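User: For my dataset I need records formatted as: sequence, then structure tokens, nothing else. Please produce one.
Assistant:
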Amino acid sequence: MGFPKTFYRWRPHPWHGLEALDGDLGTVNAYIEMTPFDAVKYEVDKTTGYLRVDRPQLTSSMTPTLYGFIPQTYCASRVQELSPKSKCGDDDPLDICVITERPINRGEVILRARVIGGLQMIDNGEADDKIVAVLDNDAFWEDANDINDISPALLERLRHYFETYKLVPGQPSDVTIEKIYGRDHALKVIEASMEDYIEEYG
């Protein structure tokens, strides 16, 4: 008797072994690296696929949402073209912030997210967009379909977090949020990152 098609003999790499989309372009899989409870910055290790401790958070600010990335995406030339003030992509998977009503207090989980917008962030000259989404089956957010459906206060928390999460006291910040955009532009960024991934990894 063979293994079912959905069975993995070995753990799939969360960046390369999972699918980007869960339905149409507006519904994606998100691999969560960090939660609002984390005072340490975690990032997936690109070689092993396990979570690695990157650093303690440099300031008292902590991510206001779940934070991770969309599998099988890559930020290179196509993503950079959608961020005209950047010089290049950041050569990482496309980041995503997922809003939920119920707290999820652990990372290294996969969830289905409905895209509503994003932040056009530039980090040291590199395009480093943050897609904004809501947990797809969260009844509290079932009517959220675009960035204007989210409280401006929450968006300001996201902006503040990303503008300060790498801040070193006494040094100028290299991070800017050029704009907050809606669902239509976010879908273009996702599609560009998927095409960049195919070109880089096949």
